[in-house]
Design goal:
Elements lengths: L4 E6 L4 E6 L9 E6 L4 E7 L12 E5 L4 E6 L7 E6 L5 E4 L14 E2 L2 E2 L2 E2 L5 E2 L5 E6 L5 E6 L4 E6 H4 L6 H6 L2 E5 L3 E6 L5 E5 L4 E5 L3
Antiparallel strand pairs: 1-2, 2-3, 3-4, 5-6, 6-7, 7-8, 9-10, 11-12, 13-14, 14-15, 15-16, 17-18, 18-19
Amino acid sequence: GLNSVLGLQADSHGIVWMLDNAMRGGDRRRLVGWHVAQDRLVADIDLTSASRNGSFLNDLAIDAERRVAYIADPASGADAALLVVDLATQEVRRVLQGHPSLTPEDIDLVIDGNQVRIKQEDGREIRPRVGVNPIALDAASDWLYFGPMHGLAMYRLRTSDLRDPGLSADDLGRRVQRWADKPISDGISIDTAGNLYLGELSVNGIGVITSD
């Protein structure tokens, strides 16, 4: 029954988590968990309540031990946000909507000397500006790293703060740290030594931000 899966991650307990963003005419955005060895469904979490009309649920990071998922929603740009999902209770919260660490900067992606443009149905061309896309947890799942695709900074936030529903939006926003410079990028991954790898689109390569 999957409609349009983009984010995909296998956790340390043998569960494959699939982020279904319902972009092919589906009516329900959801996070689906499948236990591979037991060949059975273990979770089907409705994300609709924490989504927006322009939501484009893009990627996810799973903390299997604390049973929490973090989801990047670049949405329409200005309303980009993170979703925090309690995998045990299936409660979903939308946090940091519109925070500068999630919203795109006014910069162009240039690949092979060509400025990337998207043609609309009416024939107009637009220069895309995409919000939060890269998202990953460090090895201990203590820090969540993220940033806008069209942005030149990588940010991080303690997961203990993201898991605290008692923090106000302003308090949570003040705890976001600017961690490093980055190029325009999409997906990221972090190794056990704290090196962060990213899709460096403009040079058709893989970029690395070292732990220092």
